[in-house]
Design goal:
seven-stranded mixed beta sheet; 188 residues; 23% strand; globular; alpha/beta; 44% helix; Rossmann fold
């Protein structure tokens, strides 16, 4: 990974350490996502839930290698602005686009195909976001949903739904706060 990006990642870790409104993922999850994107060669990615840009930095670093781009969505304008500054500081402004607003409205406007989605916003809408994106997901696209262990009560119905959905191969992984790894079947 580029040293400039690593430096910004470290500074964002320090920045969010004392904030009670920072909803960033554990470093273990960030490293998993980075390596997953490098392994799959994903190029067109979405992140639902930017917060201060920590996970977006890791995704952007992989996409810099893959020659791709990230659209990251955040409803809080202040957080989106701060994340945008972090992406610029890391040299990722060309491959990471911050959009501010309600995720469902923005997702309705985004075209496909999408290779990777990091689903990490409001838990009650996880299913709705996947349903909006389903026709836009390319074959073997990955949807990674965070917090399936830490928020098991809130996400239990979602995980049961996606594991039983005919369009996905899906399983939970004990990475960080728990992630649901769902792969779009090529011919559901």
């Amino acid at each position: 990974m580029d040293a400039r990006i690593e430096q910004v990642i470290d500074s964002v870790e320090e920045f969010v350490a004392d904030r009670d409104d920072a909803l960033n993922i554990p470093r273990e999850t960030a490293e998993f996502i980075h390596r997953l994107l490098l392994a799959t060669g994903a190029r067109r990615c979405l992140e639902i839930g930017t917060s201060y840009g920590y996970s977006g930095l890791w995704i952007g670093a992989a996409l810099l290698e893959n020659g791709g781009g990230l659209i990251t969505l955040e409803k809080d304008a202040r957080k989106s602005e701060t994340a945008g500054r972090h992406f610029r500081d890391a040299g990722l402004a060309e491959c990471v686009e911050c959009r501010t607003g309600l995720a469902a409205e923005i997702l309705a406007e985004i075209g496909g195909p999408v290779d990777f989605v990091f689903n990490d916003a409001d838990k009650e809408n996880c299913r709705r976001y996947v349903e909006l994106l389903l026709p836009k997901l390319g074959p073997r696209a990955v949807v990674l949903t965070d917090n399936i262990i830490s928020h098991a009560d809130e996400l239990g119905a979602f995980t049961a739904w996606i594991r039983g959905h005919e369009a996905f191969w899906s399983c939970g992984l004990p990475v960080g706060s728990g992630v649901e790894l769902s792969v779009r079947k090529p011919n559901p």
